[in-house]
Amino acid sequence: MSPRPTTPPNGRVPPRPSPSPLPPPSTSTSPLPPLLRFGVEEEFLLTGRRSRVTVPAAGEVVADAARTLGPRAQHEFLATQVEGCTRPVTTAAELRAELADTRDVLQSAADRADCRIVATGTAVLPSRHPLPVTPQDRYLRLADRIDGVADQVGAELCGCHVHLGDLTHRQALSLSARIRGWLPLFQAFCANSPFCEGIDRGNASNRPDRYARWPTFGPAPVLDEPGYRSALERLLADGVILDRRMLYWYARPSEHLPTLEVRIADSSADLDTVLLLAVLLRALAHTLLDPHVRARPRLLPDPVLRRAHRSAAVGGLDARLPDPLTGALRPVRRLLPELVEFTAGALRRTDELGLARDLTGGLLATGCGADRQRAALARHGHLSAVVDDLAERTAAR
């Protein structure tokens, strides 16, 4: 994807840091790195039961859900959105249970507020404007800083973020550099925002185009620890970001957890897609951190990487993307099964190879979220049915 450039409030764009080379792999005699825990943050829209239009019920829903989830039920930038966070876990089975239970609690709270949670990257039906910013100090300051962006059509953006840990800051930055070339593939099979406020804009995922108006959105630069600190200090000093949490790179070291946070995916109604996203990201991390694995990804130039992200957003499963190992353009429907086999050793180590193969086969057979949204429209002929279908699949265990 090729985001539009964003000019900071003072009109100055900080110089782009020079890429650091990928660190060399360790020697083959090194021991296997420890298994990483993982967790997921899911953002949802709140829609009215009868109107199917987004409703500003987050205050009521989060307060209700927090009685069970505690701080894992969270507000988002807009009052029409909520976020549910899993605990960090070690197995796919535990993660599935966490995802299902978190969705159950949020949906029960939404039921009591006469609305539903809907997992999609952008609002399907036209929303009521102006969009209501969550009345918390940081969000109100953020709305002032990005004047005009908050209320753009399609500004209700919902993503699915995977945390990979436990990692040191240095390890998180190294892993961020190594996985860059694969992230368009994850973006493609998680594409789930073909409709944006009543319009099919021809993309499998419209969320990236909408998000491109925000500062720092896009592929993470390749940085070592000093380069990372320098880049953040410059962004803060120039007023591009308010704080360290305003880094919207596709992958970033978490500022409050010992993890790498991967922020590439649209929110997905289908729990299996979320599970596949997390399982394959962790398997890829294990593979790239394994000193015995000789295959190493190419460091794709930024223009090539941005075009790949744009192709993933437009085409979803039908896109053609650069092979991260060879650079040759390949169909997503070939690259995804090949990713499973590339990470097979890591998947065996966590007893997830069969699961990954099954989930991949199911996704390729039924289509990604964008395909399912368009299929729902074709079946029923109106977008309100798409919202209903999304809500039902979001609630399904």
Automatic annotation (TrEMBL):
Keywords: ATP-binding, Ligase, Nucleotide-binding
Molecular function as annotated in GO: ATP binding; glutamate-cysteine ligase activity
Catalytic activity entry: L-cysteine + L-glutamate + ATP = gamma-L-glutamyl-L-cysteine + ADP + phosphate + H(+)
Organism domain of life: Bacteria
The keyword Nuclease is annotated on this UniProt entry: no
Presence of keyword Nucleotide-binding: yes
InterPro entries per UniProt: GCL_type2/YbdK_subfam, GCS2, Gln_synth/guanido_kin_cat_dom, YbdK
Annotated region (Disordered), positions in chain: 1-34
A single GO BP: modified amino acid biosynthetic process
EC nos: 6.3.2.2
Family to which this protein belongs: Belongs to the glutamate--cysteine ligase type 2 family. YbdK subfamily.
PANTHER family linked: GLUTAMATE--CYSTEINE LIGASE 2-RELATED (PTHR36510:SF1)
NCBIfam families to which the protein is assigned, alphabetical: gshA_cyan_rel (TIGR02050)
Entry function: ATP-dependent carboxylate-amine ligase which exhibits weak glutamate--cysteine ligase activity.
Name used for this protein in its record: Putative glutamate--cysteine ligase 2
Species of provenance: Kitasatospora setae (strain ATCC 33774 / DSM 43861 / JCM 3304 / KCC A-0304 / NBRC 14216 / KM-6054)
